[in-house]
Amino acid sequence: AVVSTQSTGEGCCFTDFTDFVPEKNVKFVVGAFDPYFNYAKMAKAFIYIRECGAQYIATNLDLRFNVSKERIIPGTGSVIAGLTESLGVKPIVLGKPSPLMYEMIS
User: Fold this and answer.
1) Alpha carbon of 87 to those of 12, 18, 49, 71, 75: distances in Å?
2) How many C-beta atoms lie closer than 10 Å to residue 57's C-beta?
3) What is the pLDDT of residue 20?
4) Could you say which of 7, 11, 66, 106 would form a disulfide bridge with 36 (CB–CB 3.0 to 4.6 Å)?
5) So what's the pLDDT on residue 102?
6) How high does pLDDT run on average in the chain?
7) Cα gap 59→33, rounded to integer Å
8) How far apart are CA 106 and CA 101, in angstroms?
9) Strand, helix or coil for residue 29
10) Is the pTM of this model over 0.70?
11) C-alpha distances in Å from residue 19, one per residue of 14, 22, 41
């Protein structure tokens, strides 16, 4: 399942999640940089991991991202931290600085 990175502009409410039916055969949830991240995406990822047994993967745990010399914004790790804390489960980190990335390459 792909939780889209495009924003629809529509709001969501908690009843949206009681009626949510996860797609079958979803094996992985991958957390990566998403400038359109929102609560609905986080809730769906949570459901896939907790209820469907999808593996939780992160591309990196960088808390901040330098967009220029003067500006820093929240990084992928900021989003991952919220999901990790709510799940009580740590992701498999495939990107920097994970040794797993280097092991897979060599």
Assistant:
1) 21, 18, 8, 31, 19
2) 17
3) 85
4) 7
5) 65
6) 84
7) 8
8) 9
9) strand
10) yes
11) 9, 10, 15
User: DSSP class of residue 6?
Assistant: S
Task: Sheet containing 55-58: give its strands across.
Answer: 28-31, 55-58, 92-93
For every residue of 42-105, DSSP letters joined together read HHHHHHHHHTT-PEEEES---SEEESSSS-EEE-HHHHHHHHHHHHT-PPEE-STT-HHHHHHH
Locate 39 and state its tokens. 């609560």
> Phi and psi of 103, rounded to 5°?
-65, -40
Q: Is the pLDDT of residue 3 over 70?
A: no
3-state secondary structure of 30: strand
Q: How many Å apart are CA 78 and CA 62, to the nearest integer?
A: 7
Chain position carrying tokens 């991958």: 30
